[in-house]
């Protein structure tokens, strides 16, 4: 697993809606916009599943997730890959549910997707685009 740099964490904090990509075990890709996507430490992302259907089905058979971090205020662009664990109960799940319901009461917060970051790539345009940073 890898730890995000301060620059990467700052960029992450500026994004409001994250594109979250998954794939089926046959390799069919699926990408969705996700608002509840937060860093819990330098190497872990929590995604709150409120409405996932294909994304969750994909993660049940293929845990690899890809996200890119970009927005008008990020000052850079990073592509993050990681391995997801699906969490449906326990302390972490309860914490995620409390965060979601404090922000938007009534949302189902049905599953916590915990992503351990495994790779970070340069995603900004230029000669270094696509290179592995972490
Ligand atoms: C702006 C925006 C933010 C969203 N945020 C979330 C979210 O935080 N959690 C979630 O489960 N779905 C969220 N959705 C819904 C998903 O993008 C998507 O509709 C859902 O995962 C079903 O698609 P799927 O079958 O491909 O998984 C959001 C949609 C939009 C447009």
From TrEMBL:
Residues 4-122 form the Pyridoxamine 5'-phosphate oxidase N-terminal domain. InterPro entries: Pyridox_Oxase_N, Split_barrel_FMN-bd. It comes from the Archaea. SUPFAM superfamilies: FMN-binding split barrel (SSF50475). Pfam families: PNPOx_N. This is Pyridoxamine 5'-phosphate oxidase N-terminal domain-containing protein. It comes from Methanosarcina acetivorans (strain ATCC 35395 / DSM 2834 / JCM 12185 / C2A).
């Amino acid at each position: 697993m890898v730890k995000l740099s301060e620059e990467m964490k700052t960029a992450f904090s500026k994004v409001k809606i994250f594109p979250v990509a998954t794939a089926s075990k046959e390799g069919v890709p699926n990408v969705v916009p996700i608002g509840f996507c937060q860093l819990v430490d330098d190497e872990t992302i929590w995604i709150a599943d409120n409405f996932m259907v294909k994304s969750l089905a994909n993660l049940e058979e293929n845990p690899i997730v890809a996200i890119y971090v970009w927005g008008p205020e990020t000052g850079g662009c990073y592509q993050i890959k990681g391995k997801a664990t699906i969490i449906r109960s326990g302390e972490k799940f309860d914490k995620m549910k409390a965060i979601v319901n404090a922000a938007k009461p009534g949302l189902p917060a049905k599953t916590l997707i915990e992503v351990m970051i495994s790779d970070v790539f340069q995603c900004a345009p230029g000669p270094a685009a696509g290179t592995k940073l972490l």
